[in-house]
Amino acid sequence: MPSVDNHYSQSLQADDILNRLATAYPEGPNTYQLAPIDQLHIGGIKASKKLSQRVADLNASTVLDVGSGLGGLLRVCQQQHNALYVSLDITHELSKINHQLNLLSKKNSMVITGNGQKLPFPDHSFDVIIMQHSLLNMPDKISTLKECKRVLSPNGHLILHEVLKGDNYQEMQYPVPWARHPELSHLISEEEITALINTTHMQIQSMEDWTEEALTWRARQTSKQETPQAPVVSPNMILGSEFAIMGKNVQRNLQCNAIRIVELVIC
After folding, report:
1. Do residues 131 and 73 make contact, with C-beta atoms less than 8 angstroms apart?
2. Within 10 A of 135 (CB to CB), how many other CB atoms are there?
3. Mean pLDDT, residues 102-120
């Protein structure tokens, strides 16, 4: 059976990524220059900026990103709000590159390899937990949500930027960036995630549908892929030559309502 770790590490060109960035940007890459590899979620850096505004509005002093990948979200957050930032991802190869990218870009966050379904932190450790396209790789969502509640401060918030099942989920096409096969894609519906959150005795403070702007973004990205260019780094260096197909499948899945993109703020 395919594993999450294998999915995200099998095509990873770690040394090449770091060498190219260090050569091209001797003063350190900025968030836009890193975006082709560390903003691979649906919505890209624009979505990360919206989430970073949430963190700033909540005035969090401690922030955990669960399923952080290469850490792009927290590097965006650090530009807008000062806090203690912690990245956690189950794929150690991604965590290693995340740490190196922080050094190159002169950003300061703690990077830990760990499982979001069993968080390695004491109770009440964080004011805000963010999960950006992370639950979709986690089969045991109730454990993940309970762990988030445990490590949140009493007045803390959980922010989810997630892919959910759409009304036409049966038309879902693979591969997509988070799964080459259905076995790794653990999408649930709005009704299911609401029920899980209620089970943990947390409350949904707000829910926003970001599907339309996500579709606009994805169509623009697909158009860019069809224009010959030679970027310093590219998504192919993370997810391999299938990335172009993955992107087109995301666009199609959004268009046919196989998937939806939502943001939930939970307390």
Report:
1. no
2. 24
3. 95
pTM as predicted = 0.96
Percent of the chain with pLDDT over 70: 98
Domains, the chain, with CATH or none: 4-266 (3.40.50.150)
CB 174 within 8 A of CB 185: yes
- Structure tokens given for 49: 């900026």
Q: Based on C-alpha coordinates, what's the Rg of the chain?
A: 17
First-residue to last-residue Cα distance in the chain: 35
Give the integer Cα–Cα distance in Å for 87 and 167.
Answer: 33
Amino acid at 120: P
**11-20, 24-33, 120-129, 225-234: lowest mean pLDDT where?**
225-234
Q: Provide the token pair at 146.
A: 């309970």
Q: What is the pLDDT of residue 157?
A: 98
The set of residues, in sequence order, having a beta carbon less than 8 Å from that of 82 and lying 6+ positions away, is none
Q: What CA–CA distance (Å, rounded) separates 259 from 146?
A: 25
DSSP state of 176: B
Q: Where are the alpha helices (DSSP H) in the chain?
A: 4-9, 14-24, 31-38, 44-58, 72-80, 92-105, 141-151, 190-199, 211-225, 236-239, 243-255
**In 3D, which of 78, 76, 51 has the Cα closest to residue 210?**
51
Rounded distance between C-alpha atoms, residue 11 and residue 17, angstroms: 12
CB 209 within 8 A of CB 261: yes
Q: Tell me the one-letter amino acid at 252.
A: R
